[in-house]
Specification:
The protein is an all-alpha fold. The chain has one domain: Glycerol uptake facilitator protein (Up-down Bundle). The chain is 63% helix and 0% strand. The chain has eight helices and no strands. The longest helix has 25 residues. 51% of the residues are buried.
Length: 252
């Protein structure tokens, strides 16, 4: 059966796809950060470091986009959903539902990661602190608030530009998830030392709720900065890409 003959997914199917896709993203990147980055067992050969976390982020998005992009568009990120709506590529009426689904998927993933730690008595009060995004004490290299805000807003803007570009009517079909995943990997390598690289309010909230007082107190930045960056990119994109009105799907 051709794609054109396939039934259009309903809102329930789309929201379920967003929950599962966001779950995969958060489970992949935060699981890597918690269990594999900084691993101290044996001779340290399992320590994947910043590069491993960046690759986990990019690969998780590639997997989710190919699997669920044809159903929901493969957003998995409230900033992306808002940015696409501002750019005229997504219906505003579904924005809140998508964001709630993404939050559910992210929190479910971080909760199960916590359960895995707790089941083997490896959970500590600071287990999720190192995976949380933020400035000063939460920044891996001690960057301040302004630097973290700029890097989160700027990287999210670049991310949305890429999404809008590779899903435009002029783009080659089928390669969008790869371009988006590779972009996230590069952006994460830039931003991890600065902010711990979120670009995604759902991912930030999912870790902040278990990250302690500093993470909760700073999560506002990891919500506001990506959304600001996405809105700026979306506004500029109207002068670069195809006209609004086409619903963006990350997987063609």
């Amino acid at each position: 059966m051709s794609d054109s003959a396939a039934p259009t997914p309903g809102l329930g199917e789309k929201l379920t796809a967003e929950i599962i896709g966001t779950f995969i993203l958060v489970f992949g990147v935060i699981g890597t950060a918690l269990y594999s980055a900084g691993f101290a067992g044996g001779d340290g050969g399992f320590n994947v470091g910043f590069l491993g976390v960046a690759l986990a982020l990019g690969l998780s998005v590639v997997i989710g986009a190919y699997a669920f992009g044809p159903i929901s568009g493969g957003h998995f990120n409230p900033a992306v959903t808002i940015g696409l709506a501002v750019a005229g590529r997504f219906a505003w009426r579904d924005t809140i539902s998508y964001i709630l689904a993404q939050l559910v998927g992210g929190v479910l993933a971080s909760t199960l990661l916590l359960v895995i730690l707790a089941a083997s008595d490896k959970l500590t009060a600071t287990s999720f602190t190192g995976a949380s995004t933020g400035y000063d004490v939460l920044s891996p290299d001690g960057f301040g608030l302004v630097s973290v805000f700029i890097v989160e807003a700027l990287t999210t803007a670049v991310f949305l530009f890429v999404i809008l570009g590779v899903t435009s009517v002029r783009a080659a079909a089928g390669f969008a998830p790869l371009a988006i995943g590779f972009t996230l990997t590069v952006l994460a390598l830039i931003a991890i030392p600065v902010s711990n690289a979120s670009f995604n309010p759902a991912r930030s909230i999912a870790t902040a709720i278990y990250g302690g007082p500093d993470a909760i107190g700073q999560v506002w930045l990891s919500i506001v900065a990506p959304i600001v960056g996405a809105i700026i990119a979306a506004a500029i994109s109207r002068f670069v890409f195809d006209r609004p009105g086409r619903i963006t799907k990350i997987a063609h």
